[in-house]
Amino acid sequence: MIKVTNLRKRFKDLVVLDGIDLEVNRGEVVAIIGPSGSGKSTLLRCLNLLEKPDDGIIQIGDATLDAKKYGRGDVYKLRKQTAMVFQNYNLFKNKTALQNVIESLIVTKRIKRDEARNIGMALLEQVGLAEKADSYPITLSGGQQQRVGIARALAVDPHAILFDEPTSALDPELVAEVLQVIKAIVQRQTTSIIVTHEMAFAREVADKVIFMADGNIVEQGTPEQLFDHPQNPRTKKFLQQVSH
Fold first, then answer.
1. The 3-state secondary structure of 170-217, one letter per residue
2. Which residues, at least 6 apart from 230, have a Cβ–Cβ distance to it below 8 Å?
3. Roughly how many angstroms between the first and final C-alpha of the chain, as a whole number?
């Protein structure tokens, strides 16, 4: 479903992604963990070209893009394959929860407003927010805003959902409600890549866990392999630090 070959990205002299190779199968849930600045979020943002990689090949669904040579059509085709859930929600402040969810259906998928509304309401129901359909983001808690963000990502029926630290901007007491919603989604065999610092959550929902440091994939395996029997000294050290 997703295949990345030799993906490289640098910001001036700083190498952020140093030749990443990655494969995610259809229906697989992959969690990416690692210290801050290891390139996790940049990797996700390169998958839909929010960041432009310097080198490498990205294949998602039936779209393939070569970072060295591509046109606008290639970008559009690649972006259509995934939807992203951001750390800081990225909702339109001047639109209601429902309008946020259905905007892309009406604008990019050209779905009639009534039909889009029905889809949007069903998705808000799914994330437990049907009664907040007409509320504006400013009146919603962080957890509720993030759940609207998740409903919006689901609306376009993507091949894969990219979650970029979906709970990092939330107060601790709101984290659980969002993780609960994500868990329900990924259990439906939705192909997902989740960048997260919630280790217990990664262990519970992921089929595969990837540990990144300094722009490299240092180690990957099942949650049991990575959390209980890490092979690389850097993985061991990181897990010791985050478990205290």
1. CCHHHHHHHHHHHHHHHCCCCEEEEECCCHHHHHHHCCEEEEEECCEE
2. 211, 219, 236, 239
3. 36
For 101, the token pair is 């969810």
Contacts of 102 (CB under 8 A, 6+ apart): 111, 113, 116, 117, 119, 120, 155
Q: How many Å separate Cα 224 from the centre of its chain?
A: 22
Q: What is the pLDDT of residue 109?
A: 86
40's enclosing H/E stretch is helix 40-47
The residue with tokens 């039909």 is 115
Q: pLDDT digit string (tens) for 30-72?
A: 999 999 999 999 999 999 999 999 999 999 999 999 999 999 9
- For residue 36, which amino acid is it? S
Question: Residue 86 to residues 90, 167, 221: CA-CA distances in angstroms?
Answer: 7, 9, 25
Dist CA 210 CA 187 (whole Å)? 19
